[in-house]
Design goal:
It is a single chain. The protein is mainly alpha-helical. The protein is built from six helices and three strands; from the N terminus they run βααββαααα. It has helices spanning about 5-15, 15-25, 45-60, 60-65, 80-110, 120-130; strands spanning about 5, 35, 40. Strands 1-3-2 form a three-stranded antiparallel sheet. The protein is elongated.
Amino acid sequence: MTDLDIAEVAHRAGVPASTLRFYEEKGLIAPTGRLGLRRQYDSGVLERLALIALGRTAGFSLDEIARMFAPDGRPRIDRRVLAAKAEELDQKIRELGALRDSLRHAAACPAPSHLECPTFRGLIDAAASGGVAAPERRPPERR
């Protein structure tokens, strides 16, 4: 296999080189060496980066993703963790679906004011009691 330069990996993975360096700091990827001052990576890093991107899209933290790799770099994904994340996503989908439906109703509701709409009032009451959570904010990742 041919090693890839950090710029080529960044380009092919669609992430900035700073993200690759950050992933190195987190222990998610490792260079094979350097050519001059530039890091070199085995071409297998592209698959690993794709797995990291998939994990991030699914809502896993970088620390959770790091635990999904064995010390030799091969994926070691606990199926129970995947099933639990799928359940978490199902719950979020149900919550978002209910929120979407309430907003659509409120947008088309014939009540003179949104505050007079029983469906919208229910949404407000749910938000007041913590039943409608604000979207989770992740701290920005250093890139």
